[in-house]
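Lab notes, practical 5.
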Amino acid sequence: MRTQRFVRRLAFTAALALTAGAAWWGGQVTMANQVETVAEAPSMVTATVQYASVGRTLTFMATATQPLAPVAINSVPGIVTSVQDSASTYSGDVLFSVAGQPVFAVQGDTPFFRDMGPGLNGEDIRQLQEALTHWGFPVEASGSFGPATTAAVRNWQAATGQARTGLVPLGSLLALPQLPAAIHLGSAITAAQQLSGGENAIYVSAGQPEFSLVLMAEQAGLIPDGAAVDIRASDQVVWPAIASQRSVDAHGHTTITLTAPDGGLVCADSCDLLGGAERSTFVATVFVIPATTGPALPVAAVHTSADGTTFVRLTDGQQIDVRVISSGDGLAIVEGLDLGQEVVLFGHEASALQNSDPQDDALQDHLDPADAADANATADADAHADA
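Output from the prediction step:
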């Protein structure tokens, strides 16, 4: 028993010794690190005046709305087996298929209203003959369905995988007033949908598209009237616009109408990128503060004197008056400095900074209000980087 108590006391004493030793070692390391940090801390944080661009943008989704009108009616009963998936439709393209029968697009103003075959005459026959010639199966556009037209139809049917009957059944061709065109299929023309015939099959744009931003009141309040907007239509195409009229609906949503800078269409000569949809959305960049370029420095380096003028201090203690042109993202574009000059952000050894005017915070009167937080963040980041 005595031996066991002695072993336990010895173990406890050893544990205390280890704990005390570890605490002493940790304290020494901590003190050493603190001393080392203090020794390496910079006495002054500076920044170099560099050429930069400053502005402020916001990103929203712009909506393009275009009125649509029906231009062709389906005449084939059955189940829709396929639909077109293309941004633009050309003459000869398959619009959709019903029960495996393809329906082709044809440019023309006369609706196809009957089965077409030998012995028939009319404007629809002439329209068919013009289409056959356009597709590479030439035949005289006489308006009479004769042997030459029958042969051309059979050749076209063979080339497109159809039965070579030489007859064109009602519903296999739809006349569209203009091709190529962006089309919109009717709501009934969807895969696996049962059709009975008579459905509005094809819609096309019937007026100029309108562009807008639909925003919450708080978001709309950030956008000044006349603000420039870039609408990204594709990787290669950007439509410039400006924020124009605005209205508020019963739910408090604000609609800001977008117009082209020259008063024309926002989508200009590339409105085909809208496709045939009634509504389309695009990424829009709103320039809340237009970009300004020039000598730039962190806003933390700019101070305001008692008379309201702004100034900076150089590393040699010299005070230089500057004029703030623009600010954003923690940077200020100024006049009165040269590129490459070193300015002081803060530093405990610079006596001039310790005696700075208490109205330095009034710089916010010259800058965008949101830049106060940006200035502090930038100063902290610069201090850590220099450290």
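Observations recorded by the TA: The two ends are 61 Å apart (CA to CA). The chain has three domains: 45-54+292-386, 58-66+207-290, 78-205.
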